[in-house]
Amino acid sequence: MTILASGEGVNLCTSYYTGVVITRVKIVKQIYSPSKSNNPEEESTNDQPSIVIKENDWTRVKEGAASRARAEGNDRDCFVVENPNRYSILNDEATSDQETTRSAQTESMKENHPRKKKSGERKPDDPTTDHETVIVVGDSMIKHLNKGRLRRSVAKKALKISTESYSGANCDAMKHHIRPCLAKNPDTVILHVGTNDMAQKNAKEIAKGVVEIGNIIQNQSPNTKVVISELITRTDTPEKRRKVAEVNAVLLTNCKKNKWGHITHANIQAKHINPYGIHLNRAGTPMLAKNIISFLNEQN
């Protein structure tokens, strides 16, 4: 309640906001006149101030912006305008005419806007885009080969190259690792293994183990071409360096006998080996990749 003093009277303004009904009473004039009657009862009655109340002409309105406006004391007339949502509820089932129209529109869009061919997507019926698959399988000596660079460097672009590196794998372990690779039905398998057998086996035993893996490839996947990547030189001990040369000589003989491919690494020297004398350094890995790329280009 708020009381304001104004002129000869007091305007008493009271506003009530009940959420739905707004009532406002204005006391527009309040006059106090001392009683001049000699009757005490009349005098006591006349001591009360006379109040003139102007009836409020506001009407019931809906709760909303109009209600808030009147609650804030806005004297302008407020009108409630019904604004129904222009979106109607969709039916769960479309009529047959609607389904026919939508189907026609869909077919028209497909004809006018054919689906664009994604990058790398090829037509299954186009024999010129079929890729030959090559898998390079080996121990940690091939772990730094970049299959993307190998693919880009090969002259035949329709050639898909992947690498499978198994660090620490010897010939016995590779006999098991090679089987999941053959499940992909590759056209060519390049096998590089034998380095991790140097401490336990002699040269003939190591070469025999590599040849046995080649036979597994040939027997399990007859259409796959077998390529043997010879061992890379080592600089840790002179004995192991000589053993590498002996293994490579036996492997070359078996590759000619079985008509397998053979990749030589005679251009990889001591300067391409890391300080531990076993793995390739940053200059050696590109040399290994170069030898593989040269072989693939000669075959195609």
TrEMBL record:
Name of protein: Scavenger receptor cysteine-rich type 1 M130
Keywords, ordered alphabetically: Receptor
Metal-binding found in the keyword field: no
Pfam families on file: Lipase_GDSL_2
Signal sequence annotation: none
Organism: Paramuricea clavata (Red gorgonian)
Composition bias type Polar residues, residue spans: 97-107
Domain SGNH hydrolase-type esterase: 139-284
Start and end residues of each stretch annotated as Disordered: 89-133
Compositionally biased intervals (Basic and acidic residues): 121-133
Lineage, opening ranks: Eukaryota, Metazoa, Cnidaria, Anthozoa, Octocorallia
